[in-house]
Design goal:
Layout (H helix, E strand, L loop, with lengths): L1 H25 L29 H5 L14 H16 L6 H27 L4 H18 L2 H26 L6 H39 L12 H13 L1 H11 L1
Helix pairs in contact: 1-3, 1-4, 3-4, 4-5, 4-8, 5-7, 6-7, 7-8, 8-9
Bound molecules: zinc ion.
Zinc ion binds next to loops.
Length: 256
């Protein structure tokens, strides 16, 4: 039975992953998500339904467009596969309302994180529309489960601290350090993580971002003056806190 449901959730995840690919491609370019049919980005031929089956089409087409033969990026099947695996990993143990709500809560967060992550890598943008979804999901949770001072103060720290640092940095160096999307994302995460949790997020993401930035400079993949997307580091640390809370608490208790 377990395996049977596992396959169901895997297929469900693949389909959602395929939709996330569309979101990542279209949302930053403001192309309609639903009405416009998918087309090959190279030759522009409209794809048939059987060219759009997650993973399977990619394998059968050997990673090439059926019409012009242009290579299709590995990214698409990887995102589908990853989303499918996340769905199986988060699969509820039973079908009670509680378990299903939990599944949708965590799976929605994972989906928004995947889109945020890829769009920030591509465009250096954390879109407001995705942030608003995340805000709605977190609010619907914290309002019921947390005493209000926890999420209000968490949100204020998450929004205020990075804003202050960015402002001081701007006054000092005349450069904008963090983008508005990063600051908003911190604020929204602060609602869910509370005061200590969000301080951990800010601290760890800056640390991970700094180390990764230095490595990229050493490997000559990036220059000092070129800004790097910072969102992925916030998202990685936040995902660690949300999906592996025991480990995050362990690290947190070493630090603070
Ligand atoms: Zn083509």
């Amino acid at each position: 039975m377990e395996t049977f449901f596992g396959i169901y959730f895997f297929i469900f995840g693949l389909l959602i992953g395929s939709f996330l690919n569309v979101v990542i491609l279209r949302l930053p370019n403001k192309i309609n998500m639903v009405t416009k049919r998918s087309a090959c980005p190279s030759c522009g031929t409209q794809l048939r339904w059987y060219h759009n089956i997650p993973l399977i089409s990619f394998i059968f087409l050997k990673g090439k467009c059926a019409f012009c033969g242009v290579r299709i990026s590995w990214r698409y099947p990887l995102i589908e596969l990853f989303t499918g695996l996340v769905a199986v990993w988060l699969m509820p143990s039973d079908f009670s309302v509680m378990s299903l709500t939990n599944f949708f809560f965590y799976f929605s967060i994972a989906c928004i994180f995947i889109c945020h992550f890829m769009i920030d890598l591509d465009h250096h943008l954390l879109l407001d529309s995705l942030n608003i979804y995340l805000l709605a999901i977190f609010l619907s949770y914290v309002v019921f489960y947390y005493p209000w001072p926890v999420w209000v103060i968490g949100g204020l720290i998450g929004f205020g601290a990075p804003l202050l640092v960015t402002w001081l940095f701007y006054k000092w160096r005349g450069q904008v350090g963090l983008g508005g999307g990063d600051i908003k994302l911190y604020g929204i995460l602060g609602l869910f993580f509370g005061p200590t949790g969000i301080i951990f997020t800010i601290f760890m993401s800056c640390l991970v971002g700094a180390v990764a930035g230095l490595m990229l400079i050493v490997m000559k993949k990036m220059t000092k003056d070129k800004p790097m997307a910072f969102g992925p580091y916030i998202l990685l640390v936040a995902a660690f806190q949300i999906f592996f809370p025991e480990y995050a608490h362990m690290v947190q208790s070493w630090l603070f």
